[in-house]
C-alpha cells in the first residue's frame, strides 16, 4: 500500500451533488481500504445548480454514523461564497449543523462571470472568514478567483482558517503552477497551515494527491504545516469549535 501524505481527506463529494458519482458508503469503504482515518463529506450548498436540498446537510448529522468501516465520517459542506461581500449561501442557523465548513467561490452562480481583481476577491474571503465556524477556504488557487496572497495568508493564519491545496483543481488546470507556488511560498513565510485534499467526485481518487505532493516537494514546504497529515490535528481543530461533535 502506498504511503499517503494525508490521514484525512477533508474535501470529498457524494452523488448528493449530482456531478459526483459515489455514495458515502463507497467513499468510506475505499478510504478504509487505503488506510485513511477520516473523510469529510462536503457536498455543494444552495446556489450551485446541482446542490442537494438543505435537508441533506441537516439530516447527515442525524442519520449518518460517526464512523463507517473504521473511518471517521465528518459531516461538512462546501459552502459557496455567494458574492464578493463574503456572504455565504446558506442560513447562519444551517451552518451550525455542519461539522466542517469549507467555503469556496465557484463561477457557476455569478451572472455573466468575469474574473474580478485580486483585491475584490480577497476582500470577499477575508469577510467570509470572520465567521468563526469556517474551517477552510476551498481551492483558493483557482485562477478564476485571483487572490492577493500577501493579504489573505496572514488573515487566514490569524483567523485559524486553513488554506486548501486541492488535487483536483491542479489536475484539471484550474489552479496553475505559478499560483500554487505563490500560495505555498507565502504560507511557508507566515507559517500558515494548509490542508491537502482531493476534492474527489468519485471514490477511486480519494486520498491520492500526487500533484499536491509534487508542488510541496518543489516548494520545500514544511510537513508540520500540513494540517491533515495528522488526523489528531484536524480532530482537535474540530473539537475546539464543536465540543459535542462526537468524532
Ligand atoms: Zn469547489
Ligand atoms: Zn468540491
Can you walk me through this structure?
This protein is of the alpha/beta class. It has one domain: TIM Barrel, CATH 3.20.20. The chain is built from nine helices and eight strands. Strands 1, 2, 3, 4, 5, 6, 7 and 8 form an eight-stranded mixed beta sheet that branches. Helix 1 links the parallel strand 1 and strand 2. Helix 5 packs across helix 7. The longest helix has 14 residues. It is globular and about 45 Å long. The chain starts with 7 loop residues before the first strand and ends in a 6-residue tail after the last helix. The mean pLDDT is 97. The site of one zinc ion has 4 residues, from loops.
Average pLDDT, all residues: 97
CATH topology title:
TIM Barrel
Helix content: 25-40%
| Order of secondary-structure elements | EHEHEEHEHEHEHHEHH
Give the biggest sheet. Answer: 8 strands, mixed
From the coordinates shown, what is the CATH architecture? Alpha-Beta Barrel
Number of helical regions: 9
Small molecules held by this entry: zinc ion
Name the CATH homologous superfamily: Metal-dependent hydrolases
β-strand amount: 15-25%
Low-confidence stretches: none
- Which value, in Å, is the CA radius of gyration? 16 Å
How many separate domains make up the residues? 1
What's the N-to-C terminus distance?
Answer: 26 Å
CATH class category name: Alpha Beta
Total number of β-strand segments? 8
Give the structural class: alpha/beta
Large-scale geometry: globular
Give the assembly state of these chains. single chain
Amino acid at each position: 500500500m502506498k504511503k499517503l501524505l494525508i490521514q484525512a481527506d477533508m474535501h470529498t463529494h457524494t452523488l448528493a451533488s449530482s456531478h459526483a458519482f459515489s455514495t458515502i458508503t463507497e467513499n468510506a469503504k475505499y478510504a478504509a481500504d487505503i488506510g485513511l482515518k477520516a473523510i469529510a463529506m462536503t457536498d455543494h450548498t444552495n446556489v450551485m445548480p446541482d446542490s442537494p436540498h438543505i435537508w441533506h446537510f441537516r439530516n447527515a448529522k442525524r442519520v449518518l454514523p460517526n464512523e463507517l468501516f473504521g473511518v471517521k465520517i465528518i459531516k461538512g459542506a462546501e459552502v459557496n461564497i455567494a458574492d464578493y461581500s463574503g456572504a455565504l449561501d446558506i442560513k447562519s442557523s444551517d451552518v451550525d449543523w455542519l461539522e466542517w465548513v469549507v467555503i469556496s467561490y465557484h463561477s457557476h452562480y455569478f451572472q455573466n462571470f468575469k474574473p474580478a481583481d485580486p483585491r475584490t476577491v480577497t476582500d470577499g474571503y477575508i469577510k467570509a472568514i470572520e465567521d468563526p465556524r469556517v474551517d477552510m477556504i476551498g481551492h483558493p488557487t483557482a485562477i478564476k478567483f485571483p487572490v492577493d496572497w500577501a493579504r489573505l495568508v496572514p488573515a487566514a493564519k490569524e483567523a485559524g482558517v486553513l488554506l486548501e491545496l486541492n488535487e483536483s483543481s491542479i489536475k484539471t488546470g484550474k489552479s496553475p503552477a505559478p499560483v500554487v507556488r505563490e500560495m505555498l511560498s507565502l504560507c511557508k513565510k507566515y507559517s500558515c497551515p494548509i490542508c491537502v485534499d482531493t476534492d474527489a467526485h468519485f471514490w477511486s481518487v480519494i486520498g491520492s494527491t500526487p500533484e499536491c505532493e509534487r508542488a510541496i516537494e518543489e516548494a520545500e514546504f514544511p510537513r508540520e504545516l500540513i494540517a491533515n497529515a495528522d488526523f489528531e490535528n484536524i480532530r482537535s481543530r474540530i473539537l475546539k469549535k464543536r465540543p459535542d461533535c462526537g468524532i
